[in-house]
Specification:
mainly alpha, Cytochrome Bc1 Complex, Chain D, domain 2, binds heme C
Length: 118
C-alpha cells in the first residue's frame, strides 16, 4: 500500500515534466514555423507600407516603386540593404529598422505573391 503511494508520487513529476516539455515545444513551434508566420505577419506588416506603396503593393503615387510580384529574395535583399545602410534611402532605412529580418522577409514574401494587373 505504502509502496503503491510512493510509486504514484514518483510517476507524477515525470508526467508533469512531459507535459511542460510538450507545451514548451508547442509555444516554440508558434515562433519557429516560418511558413505560418509569413502568411499572417507579412500581410499585417504590409498595412504599414500601403500609405506610400499603395494598398496591396500597387503603385500609390508617381515615382513610388511598386512591390507586387517582385522576386521575394530580391525584395528581402532590398529591405535588408536599407536596414543595414548598405543602400542609401530617404525613408526606407528608417522604416526597415523598425522590423526584424524575419519580419522583412515575411512582408517581402507577401508582396511577391501578390498579382498585378489592376
Ligand atoms: C513614408 C513612405 C514609405 C513607407 C511607409 C514605406 N516605403 Fe518603401 N519606399 C519608399 C520610398 C520613398 C522608396 C525609395 C527609396 C527611398 O528613398 O527610401 C521606397 C522603396 C522601397 C523598396 C525598394 C523598391 C525597389 O524596387 O527599389 C522596397 C522593397 C520597399 N520600399 C518596401 C517597403 C515595405 C515592405 C514597407 C512597409 C514595411 C515600406 N516600403 C514602407 C517609401 C515608403
Amino acid at each position: 500500500m505504502e509502496g503503491q503511494v510512493i510509486k504514484n508520487a514518483s510517476d507524477m513529476p515525470m508526467i508533469f515534466k512531459t507535459i511542460s516539455l510538450l507545451s514548451l515545444l508547442l509555444v516554440l513551434s508558434l515562433f519557429l514555423s516560418p511558413v505560418a508566420a509569413s502568411d499572417v505577419s507579412g500581410k499585417l506588416i504590409s498595412f504599414s507600407c500601403s500609405a506610400c506603396h499603395g494598398t496591396e503593393g500597387l503603385l500609390a503615387q508617381p515615382g513610388m516603386p511598386s512591390l507586387i510580384g517582385q522576386d521575394a529574395n530580391k525584395l528581402t535583399q532590398l529591405l535588408l540593404d536599407f536596414k543595414y545602410d548598405r543602400q542609401s534611402s530617404t525613408v526606407m532605412g528608417r522604416i526597415s529598422k523598425g522590423f526584424t529580418d524575419t519580419e522583412l522577409q515575411s512582408v517581402a514574401l507577401y508582396f511577391s505573391r501578390l498579382k498585378g494587373g489592376n
